[in-house]
Amino acid sequence: MARLLQWIGFLTGLGGLVLQLALTIPASLEAGRSIAGSIVFFFSFFTVLTNILVMLAHAAALGLAGNRLSLLQHPSIRAGLVAAIAMVGLVYFFILAALWQPAGWWQAADITLHYVTPLVFVGWWLIAGRGGTSTWRDPFVWLAWPLGYLAYALARAPIAGEVPYPFLNYMENGWGAVLSAITGLLVLYLSLGFAIVALDRFLPAVQSQKLRDSSR
User: Fold this and answer.
1) Which of 46, 165, 184, 207 is most buried, most CB within 10 Å of its CB?
2) How does pLDDT run across 30-42, given as a tens digit for each residue?
3) Where are the alpha helices (DSSP H) in the chain?
């Protein structure tokens, strides 16, 4: 089951990203961006970047890249990616999904990258990806990923004249609204992180107890 989920996660992640790229570049060119600008635009979304990392984590677990992706096999990195990809799904479901109604292949890409890949990765982590070594300090370390992304997205905004997500649009909404949104999202991210640490610490203990009981 674990290896099946790894393959499903890798293939669906790769397929979803390729499909999203194939849809985004032509649409971006039609909107007036250059080829280089369109590529940068594609890589400006937290969803895309996190899905790339999750896909590579599946590839690392499958041994598809030798030792080149060994960092992504570290238990703390895997657990941090669970928080990131879960955040992708939750923010889309509760905030972004109501803002537009994609159809056709756009809808297929959206469902794949916002729902399928998060569910598969979280499911795989629960079954076989946990290391049981997470600490209560880890969620604060995991914040480096969304904070780094936010720094990039906000620094790019005045240069590109756009933001990837509407809740980051300080040019229209003002910094007060944007900082409130960011604070709420970071609190959610930390909450997810603490829940993941609790699962990582609790579930292995339950399994170990079962093993001890069955050996008696």
Assistant:
1) 46
2) 999 999 999 999 9
3) 2-30, 35-42, 46-62, 75-91, 104-111, 117-124, 138-142, 144-160, 170-214
